[in-house]
Amino acid sequence: MCYAHRFGLRNADVGLRDALGLRTADVRLRDALGLRTADVRLRDAFGLRTADVRLRGALGLRTADVRLRDAFGLRTADVRLRDAFGLRNADVGLRDALGLRTADVRLRDALGLRTADVRLRDAFGLRTADVRLRDALSLRTACAAAVDVDARDLLNRPSPGAKEMVSLRTMWLGDSECVLFNSKHKRISNRCPAVVGRVAQRVERGANLYAAMREEAVPLADRPRIFEIVRFVMGDVQDEAPATFPEGKFHNVLVLCPSSHCNLKCGYCTGITAEGPGGVEGWMTPEIAVDAVDFYFANAAPYPSYTLQFHGAGEPLVNFKAVKTAVEHARAVASKRGAQLFCRVSTNGVYSRERAEWVAENFDHISLSLDGPPEIHNHQRPRQNGGATFDNTMRSLEIFQAAGKLKRMNVVITPFSVDQMHEIVHFLGGIGGLTQVRLLPMAYVTACSMNNMDPLNREHYDRLFSEAVPIAQTYGMEMIGVTDEVDYFTDLYCGACGLNMVVGPNGNVSTCVEVLNEHNGVPELLIGSYDRATRSFNLDWDQVARLRTRTHENTNESCKSCSFRTNCSSSCLVRAARHNGTVFSKDPESCAQTYRELTHILSTLADGKSYANKYGVTDLAPTVGAGERGNELSSAQS
């Protein structure tokens, strides 16, 4: 094997002897090293102080006394240039030559000597002590030699482009401390000094990591550690382009609201039912259900599986005929497309044993509403005539559990029940077998004001919820609050952003179950209607496209720079519109709660403490931060 091949030169016929012009008069040092001046001697090229040292001596081929230290100004006296270049030992990789930790990267690959424009002097930083490996490899990263990552992958990695969603985020804890987190890749740092946050924020905005450290005047001694922290939390940036959806096509979820009637009379109900003001026509006919399924599948993007979900205004199962018809027809249509169909329902469970058994047999995912022990549940969720519902709900719960279809419990916390939150959690844990419980703070809507209910104190709720989380954990239950967005990384808050097709009882088409007609106060979410005469749907695809542009970039100026901008994406569209008159805004109450809760959760995780299954971040990678493993930053920067 010739030296040219070992160095990765393009011309295999030019050996090192010929390349350096030792015996061939026609090959100049200028040509070999890409220098412009033919008179530059070997001394100048290598930056050696002795003009009489020949290449034989410099390369340590026969002279053991010329060390890599002398040739390259390095600090390691025992590594010879011969070993550094791997001329006689093919297994000596970049690890041995440059002190890196990765043995598989060869010097030939690392130094990229196929490019004639890399001069030997610049490549090895011979005369200038401040020329680091970044200059040698014509790369931008100074700290590659300090991290345990494949050098080729790291050093050749480009900075995130304008179209990429960099998932690195910085959460500030005052002026002097921060936490870096990444909800997409489920990574988090320990608490770090402010300089780490300032560097990370530059990277968030698209800056190269080395350039960011240089701009923040980070001391050289601290750069390897900061590099390690930021790179770990940042994860891979190659696949972070925002999600896109086919124009004029729905996502993979169809939601039917078959009834605006309900057999219960919950004081906090968020739906506009037939019994309430502005109530919609109460019953979906089987024909509308079938036509809705057909229209949806004709306008849905191709997916391997689809979800058919039943929801309220009222209780879906009071219109059993429409539900049964839709499930059977949708399964047949999905099968013809070669796709799977998953059926989901949110229900109160207050119906006959026979109906509960049918639900258990035909649905894959059941969410059941149960507000706690009998005295709480019956108070908050009575029948229309005021009668108790607890026993009926518990019977359905047992049927759903036995079939393995009960996936989630929905519990609404009101001013009446908030101080009994711990008791509610103990009660649910005592049932046994429940895996996921969603505690929902009561939203103050029309029904609440009509029933003279007081608004819920959200800060009080947050504090008690945090205390209830470890209680649930002892029962093996995952607790979900309204801001489980710690696990989210998205530009779009939910399917209401033009992704869902939600069909109301009379055929109105919306993107949210809380908006089924113009009386809901959010007309922006109404995207179509049903013509009974022609049995056809009419869709406003322009409005669908407009809703898909609703992100943190166009709702509120403060959302653009918020640490949690891709966690909550300006939060609920309905709440924002009811507060500000448009979905292209943010709800201040939801915003404040999200900020409080996510700050608490992430701070707890950064401190290395468990936080109730981490809200879905169950496989969080080991944290890194200032002070871990004794690798503290050299200066206490702020």
Give keywords.
638 residues, alpha/beta, 11-stranded mixed beta sheet, 4-stranded antiparallel beta sheet, 34% helix, 11% strand, globular, disordered N terminus, disordered C terminus
Notes on the structure:
The chain contains 27 helices and 15 strands. The protein has 638 residues and is α/β, with parallel strands linked by helices. The protein has an eleven-stranded mixed sheet. Strands 1, 2, 3 and 4 form a four-stranded antiparallel sheet that branches. Helix 16 (286-298) links the parallel strand 5 (253-256) and strand 6. The radius of gyration is 33 Å and the shape is globular. The two termini are 54 Å apart.
The largest sheet is: 11 strands, mixed
Residues in β-strands, percent: 5-15%
Largest sheet strand order: 11-10-9-8-7-6-5-12-13-14-15
* Cα gyration radius (Å): 33 Å
Uncertain parts: 1-165, 273-280, 611-632, 634-638
Tally of individual helices: 27
Which structural class matches the secondary elements?
Answer: alpha/beta
Task: Give me the secondary-structure topology.
Layout: H1 3-7, H2 16-19, H3 29-33, H4 42-46, H5 55-58, H6 68-72, H7 81-85, H8 94-98, H9 107-111, H10 120-124, H11 133-136, H12 151-155, E1 169-172, E2 177-182, E3 187-188, E4 192-193, H13 194-204, H14 209-215, H15 223-234, E5 253-256, H16 286-298, E6 305-310, H17 320-336, E7 340-347, H18 353-362, E8 365-369, H19 374-380, H20 390-402, E9 406-413, H21 421-431, E10 436-441, H22 446-450, H23 458-474, E11 478-480, E12 501-503, E13 509-510, E14 526-531, E15 536-539, H24 541-547, H25 565-568, H26 573-580, H27 588-606
Parallel strand pairs: 5-6, 5-12, 6-7, 7-8, 8-9, 9-10, 10-11
Antiparallel strand pairs: 1-2, 2-3, 2-4, 12-13, 13-14, 14-15
Helix pairs in contact: 13-14, 16-17, 18-20, 21-23
